[in-house]
Amino acid sequence: MRITRTVAGRSRRAAVLATTGLTASALLLTGCSSDSDSSGSTGPDANGKITLTVADFGQFGYKEAGLFAKYHELHPNITVKEDVTSDEKVYYPKLLQQLNSGSGLADVQGIEVGRIKELVDTKASSFVDLSKVINVDDWVSWKEKQATTPDGAVIGAGTDIGPMSLCYNTDLFKKAGLPTDREEVAKKVSGGWEDYLKLGEEYKKKAPAGTYFMDSASAMFNAVVSSNAKQYYDESGKPVYKDSPSVEQGWNLAAEAASKKLTQGLAQFNDPWKAALRKGTVATVACPAWMAGQISVNAGDANKGKWNITTAPGATAANWGGSFLAVPKSGKNVDEATKLVKWLTAPEQQAAVFKAIGSFPSNKGAYDLPNVKDAKLQYFNDAPIGQIYADEAKSIPETVLGPKDGVIKDTISTQINNMEQRGTSPDDAWKAATSAIDKAIG
Fold first, then answer.
1. What are the DSSP calls for 203-271, one per residue?
2. Quick one: CA dihedral 394, 399, 405, 410, positive or negative?
3. Which of 88, 111, 209, 419 could cysteine-pair with 258, CB 3.0–4.6 Å?
4. Helix H segments across 242-360?
5. Three-state DSSP class for 94?
6. How many CA atoms lie within 13 A of 352 on its CB side?
7. Which residues are 309's β-sheet partners?
């Protein structure tokens, strides 16, 4: 099983890709142990040999793509060791503690997108400014802006992103009398997530017994909000989630989906959700790039060829997930660590990671490389995911991030689950969500 990086209600990842297909048995890896006992940075030894430590969470794919070994071949005096924490919720508090104490930091530190704004606002001075090292224009524009301070310093180089698509079960669609061709399905939802619910109502009329149009209304909520520039905060850093048009739209659509029983009401990535995929009771899943692997592994070989992928509803795509690599100033090998980050986030290396584990590149230069451009998923009827995700990535809006985006999203998602599973009224669920959020963020 593929390691999941979990933060702010998002479980990231999961696919091993090739331009000719996808091998389900290698998609989702379980367990991921540290390659080093300590992430503390040390300088060259007596022989001039350097060990660079990379601390990250979940699975960034560098080992799987053979990149650390390749870097050693290119630089025989440098060995790279990875210190992995499987759960990002454990990793991040430790990173904050290390930043506060100024000790124990690795030469390179991974940062999840849900945390980047808080570090830009409060800890930017602790990291090397990469703006002089990388060409920020090589990345999709909104990605590097997430890691950029008001005075132009860039504290992290973008690794992957999660452009949104729509995964759908063609077998269930056919039985419900809906089109199965990916272009026809795209047309049915071209007007946006409102059209998606209309399609759900069509599905329900002839749905096979015991099946549901979507797995989770909270996942749809996240996709709706993430496709808008204004989400939970305004440009001044003020929380505006109570008055945000995108939050209101997402909440109302989630409430409608729950009331019309279009959703199975499953919390994503838990055992009932996995069982639903295996049993074929879910017709659609809001599908960031890394979700395909989750579906293929949990649905299993018996459902191979029964799924397809098309573009997300509406004209504006969403992003769900992504990370950065940063270099702490306190490291003993800052120059070499900076060079490593530049190399790991270059197009060729990001394309190699995409082929190895399915993390979609944030560096635009990778989109024209064969490992990305020609990538298809055999499990999903050879869906041209390289083309789909690249097109989606270019239409994702520049969003305003806030320091507690994750807390807000997590709390709202919990209350959406309550509407689905417990029948909580939308008004009561919203009151519970806002009360909990206000207490959490102050």
1. HHHTPPTT-EEES-HHHHHHHHHHTSS-SSB-TTS-B-TTT-HHHHHHHHHHHHHHHTT-B--PPTTSH
2. negative
3. 419
4. 245-259, 271-279, 291-299, 334-344, 347-357
5. helix
6. 16
7. 167
Alpha-carbon span 412 to 112, nearest angstrom: 20
How far, in Å, CA of 98 to CA of 96, rounded?
5
pLDDT in tens, 39-64: 566 766 656 799 999 999 988 999 99
Write out the E strands in 17-156.
17-18, 21-22, 50-57, 78-85, 108-112
In the numeric block, the tokens 């295996």 are attached to: 278
Beta bridge partners of 79: 51
Residues 6+ apart with CB under 8 A from 209: none
Scan for tokens 């959406």, then name that residue: 416
- Residue keyed to tokens 């599908």: 287
Global pTM exceeds 0.85: no
User: Which of 293, 312, 268, 60 shows the shortest CA–CA distance to 163?
Assistant: 312
Euclidean distance between CA atoms 361 and 153, whole angstroms: 22
The answer to whether 249 touches 286, Cβ cutoff 8 Å, is no
- The DSSP-derived string for 139-154 is B-HHHHHTTB-TTS-B
CA 326 distance to own-chain centroid? 18
Q: Is the pLDDT of residue 212 over 90?
A: yes
Q: At residue 375, what is the residue type?
A: A
User: For residue 120, which of 329, 333, 401 has the smallest C-alpha distance?
Assistant: 401
Mean pLDDT for all residues in the chain: 89
Count CA atoms closer than 13 A to 311's CA, side-chain side: 24
Rounded Cα gap, residues 230 and 241, in angstroms: 9
> Which of 260, 235, 232 shows the shortest CA–CA distance to 246?
232
119-140 pLDDT, tens digit per residue, is: 999 999 999 999 999 999 999 9
* Amino acid (1-letter code) at residue 107: D
Instruction: Give the tens place of pLDDT for each residue, 178-196.
Output: 999 999 999 999 999 999 9
- Number of neighbouring beta carbons within 10 Å of residue 130: 24
293, 305 Cβ separation under 8 angstroms: no
pLDDT tens figures, 289-340: 989 888 998 999 999 999 999 999 998 888 988 999 999 999 999 999 999 9
Rounded CA-CA distance 395/364 in Å is 13
**CB-side neighbour CA atoms (13 Å) of 19:** 11
By three-state DSSP, how is residue 118 classified? helix
What are the pLDDT digits (tens) for 262-273? 999 999 989 999
At 351 the pLDDT is 97
Whether pLDDT at 18 is above 60: no
